[in-house]
Amino acid sequence: MKKNKIELCLFFILMTMMVSCHKNAVQYDRHFSHCIYDYYNKTCRYPKDGNDFCYHIYMYEKINKVIDGDMSYKDFCEKEENEMAYLKQDYKTPIFQYPYFFLNRENISFKSSDSFLFMRNRKSKDVYAVPLIDGLLKHFGDSVMFPSYNVDASLNPGAFGRDSIKIEWDTYQSDSIMTAKIYVLYENWEKYTFGNKVQMVYYDKAKNMNKGSCPEQIRKDSVLVGILDDILNYDKRIKFIRFAITIDK
């Protein structure tokens, strides 16, 4: 019931919003929100335009060895376009999956407000919007952690490397040492999933935690900090670790 009320609220908000400079009705699409939140989970950012979206997906696959490390961005786009050629047709309603962003990357632009990210396709004139994760957390707290918005994945512990690209835990599945460290991290992280105010925690190699805004109980948890240090030191690619906590304050 709570989920339905939130979705209904967001639906009415988005349906009544307008992009002033183009006067296009803003549309909401659940699949579009999934793509944006998945992108945020992989890159720790929101895209600036279509090429920025595609470039950071390229970087994500390159860092995580999904593609050849020597492949250029140009070659990557050509490969993707060749594989997606059969999708080049006019859809009455866009099918929001990664092929849509690659095939329309020259026509897509993004613009953000305090609470929403807007995407405009210059060719089709369509305008779509999705609530920013920070905005959802501000208004709904931990009640947004449900699959329909794919927000929960963005709040789970993650390690990020160059350009804030996520380094997937899956790369360590065959490594018993790293698997054990991750298990202990989750075990200790879960101690701080209480209350209804969500806060993102960032821990970097300089031993900074949110530049002073992190709750004291996190900063002084020597066991948790020790685990975070072990993970940072284990893989030199990792620049910082990000995870969410829920607190009463």
Gist?
With 249 residues, the protein is α+β, with helices and mostly antiparallel strands. It contains ten helices and nine strands.
What does the model show?
This protein is α+β, with helices and mostly antiparallel strands and 249 residues long. 42% of the residues lie in helices and 17% in strands. The strands form two sheets. It has a five-stranded mixed beta sheet with strand order 1-2-5-4-3. Strands 7-6-9-8 form a four-stranded antiparallel beta sheet.
Tally of individual helices: 10
Give the termini separation: 26 Å
Percent in helix: 40-55%
Percentage of residues in DSSP E strands: 15-25%
Return Rg in Å.
20 Å
